Amino acid sequence: MSKILIGRYISGNSLVYKMDPRGKLLATIFFILIVFMANNPLSYLIVTVFSLVAVAATKLKPKIFWDGVKPLIWLILFTSFLQLFFTVGGKVYWRWTIFAVSSYGIENAIFIFIRFTVIILISTVMTVTTMPLEIADAIEWILTPLKLIKVPVDKIALVMSIALRFVPTLFDETFKIMNAQRSRGADFNNGGLITRAKAVTPLLVPLFISSLETAIDLSTAMESRGYRGDEGRTKFRVLKWSKYDLVNLGYFASLIVLLLVFRTH
To answer: Where are the alpha helices (DSSP H) in the chain?
Structure first.
């Protein structure tokens, strides 16, 4: 079973690691939005090339990014097949009751597959090259304007940082419990949907107890260190924009320009 990469930081020393986490987070959000501007084979080729260049810029092994896509590959394929069989347009190659395969459906299925894949790849680039606490600080910075309407941004950032930090720990604990139960004869892979659901149920109690113990230990550690999340609290790591963020800005600005030029109007 592959590891989930959410919240997992992998150390490195490439250009992407030197970029400010705020810039990487904003670039990721903008990429998810602008990828929908692609609407023809050339524009999707541009998006794919830009994504692969971003992956290569991390100087990490391609397997890391495959591990990021693999847990969602069946969801991507399922969504693509829905487009393939339920989107009708252009030349129809096959039809049976409500199902049909047409040239427009094939094109849409390929585009949906590329769109989901590149979004996961770019999100993985940000996740593996940015520490969870830096991501939380970037989110807090983005939400700063909400302080004007009395939104507790500091508390929201704290919750997000804790969640990002302990998501990998929670998954690791789940795998440990599953392996321990497999060694005692538990089977999580065979049988129908109901059988698998019943097999997973015994995981919930030890996982809940482990999570509760972790939460209690964390709260005790924070109290013993005198943590206060009030306004004006200083940070150990101060985020600073640098010249490397200009590369990030120029990279995605050029992507937007190319999509505007080559997309079909």
So the answer is: 21-34, 41-57, 62-69, 73-86, 103-129, 132-142, 153-182, 193-224, 244-262
Q: Cβ(142)–Cβ(20) under 8 Å?
A: no
Please enumerate, as own/partner, the contacts of 88-92 that have beta carbons within 8 Å and a separation of 24 or more: none
Q: How far apart are CA 194 and CA 44, in angstroms?
A: 40
Helix (H, G, I), strand (E, B) or coil at 120: helix
253 by DSSP, 3-state: which? helix
Task: In whole angstroms, give the CA distance from residue 251 to residue 238.
Answer: 25
Q: 66: closest CA among 119, 121, 17, 114?
A: 121
Q: Tens place of pLDDT for every residue, the chain, 265 residues?
A: 445 555 578 888 888 999 999 999 999 999 999 998 888 899 999 999 999 999 999 999 888 888 778 878 888 888 888 888 887 777 878 878 878 888 888 888 899 999 999 998 998 898 889 888 888 888 888 888 888 888 888 888 778 778 777 777 787 788 888 888 778 777 776 766 677 777 777 788 888 888 888 888 888 888 888 777 666 667 777 788 888 899 888 998 899 899 888 887 6
Residue in 166, 162, 127 with CA at minimum distance from that of residue 17: 127
- Amino acid identity for residue 138 in this structure: A
DSSP summary character for residue 90: S
Tell me if 196 sits within 8 A of 188, measured CB to CB: yes
Residue 102 phi, psi (nearest 5): -130, 170
